[in-house]
Design goal:
- The structure is a single chain.
- By secondary structure, the protein is α+β, with helices and mostly antiparallel strands.
- Helix content is about 40%, strand content about 20%.
- Strands 2-3-1-4 form a 4-stranded antiparallel sheet.
- It is globular and about 55 Å long.
- The N terminus is likely disordered.
């Protein structure tokens, strides 16, 4: 058997690296897909994580008493417009309703470092101000990639919520 020429070995090594390095050092190499510029842009730590504030929206004290359909529709239009505005400013990473989880109604994940900042943002929600929802606050440590949800969402949303 003839020895493999050095150039051929180099080509094989390059092909192996492109196919995915499975050596123990793979997690430290660019082959794992790590993008330092994106990590920095999203505020990721070394684990790809960052701090947020999670807000659980529970049924509020005025939910049952605000029964006028037109008034509720106005409040919820403001609720959705407020979420869109906060997301557009990069302050709201994720939001959505809970499915069949009463009294829990929905959640916000805010891109802010403190509960106090999240409290100020929640007060801009007309449904919270009206007492339809009552917020509960917790610190959250989650993937920095959550900051790209809104950018991706507009590309998969066929019908806008108004």
């Amino acid at each position: 058997m003839r020895p493999i020429p050095p150039l051929a070995l180099a080509c094989l090594a390059l092909l192996g690296a492109c196919a995915g390095n499975t050596s123990p050092d793979a997690s430290q190499s660019p082959a794992n897909g790590f993008d330092p510029a994106l990590a920095s842009q999203l505020g990721a730590d070394e684990y790809g994580m960052r701090s947020y504030v999670l807000v659980t929206l529970n049924t509020g004290p005025n939910d049952a008493t605000l029964t006028d359909a037109e008034e509720r529709a106005t409040i919820f239009r403001g609720h959705f417009a407020n979420m869109k505005d906060l997301a557009g400013k990069g302050l709201l990473a994720v939001s959505g309703p809970f499915m069949d989880a009463a009294p829990k109604r929905g959640l916000y994940i805010f891109n802010v470092p403190t509960i106090e900042e999240a409290q100020a943002l929640v007060l801009t929600d007309p449904a919270v101000a009206a007492g339809i929802f009552e917020p509960e606050f917790d610190k959250l440590y989650a993937s920095a990639a959550l900051m790209q949800v809104n950018e991706i969402h507009v590309r998969v949303q066929q019908t806008a919520v108004e």
